[in-house]
Amino acid sequence: MFELLKAGGILMVPIVACSILALAIVLERFWTLRPSRVAPVQTINELWRWIKKKELNGRKLKALQGSSPLGRILAGGLINAKHGRDIMKESIEHEASQVIHELERFLNPLGTIATITPLLGLLGTVIGMIKVFAEIQLAGVGNAGNLAGGISEALITTASGLSVAIPALICHRYFIRRVDELVVNMEQEAIKLVEVVHGDREIDVEGA
């Protein structure tokens, strides 16, 4: 492996660095964007039970706020529910914007890696071909061994760049989709909470 990286030339250093960074981001996002962590079902069910039994108090609101990103959004709305529907919605939107920002953390760097690694591979290809033509000018085309180094550098960097970019792009698209699904789910729960608190909707007894 080391010999392969060495044959790829200096541009293998940023490509390898991008691959390590991309792997770290993917593992971290897989762990962070779990539905059971972001919007656990037990959190909303417990909240409905508290509201149904009129057991909601400051201590339980604080526990709800720290339980999950969804709990943080719902708690933000409940804290300001007494000020009216509009203020409650604004509080939910304020908390939701911060939560969404956290859910999308590191996705831009992952997308950037998916974009730049093929370009790094292409640059390596160009550099390798420049070396090949420089060798042809000096020694002609008779010695294939002298040309092999530049050609191998061109091919290795291209393959390496694509090998990093393709999985990074797939994971980036996947995480964007997962964030969208989580946001829609949290939005639905927040709307339901506003309607329940202000008497426009009954609590689902089975769900509670």
UniProtKB/TrEMBL annotation:
Coiled coil: none annotated. Keywords: Cell membrane, Membrane, Protein transport, Transmembrane, Transmembrane helix, Transport. It is found in: Cell membrane; Membrane. It comes from the Bacteria. It holds the Pfam family MotA_ExbB. GO terms for biological process: protein import. InterPro entries: ExbB/TolQ_transport, MotA_ExbB_proton_chnl. Signal peptide: none annotated. The chain crosses the membrane at residues 6-27, 110-134, 154-176. One of its GO terms (cellular component) is plasma membrane. Its main location: membrane. Residues 68-187 form the MotA/TolQ/ExbB proton channel domain. It is a multi-pass membrane protein. Belongs to the exbB/tolQ family. PANTHER family: MOTA_TOLQ_EXBB PROTON CHANNEL DOMAIN-CONTAINING PROTEIN, PROTEIN TOLQ. This is Biopolymer transporter ExbB.
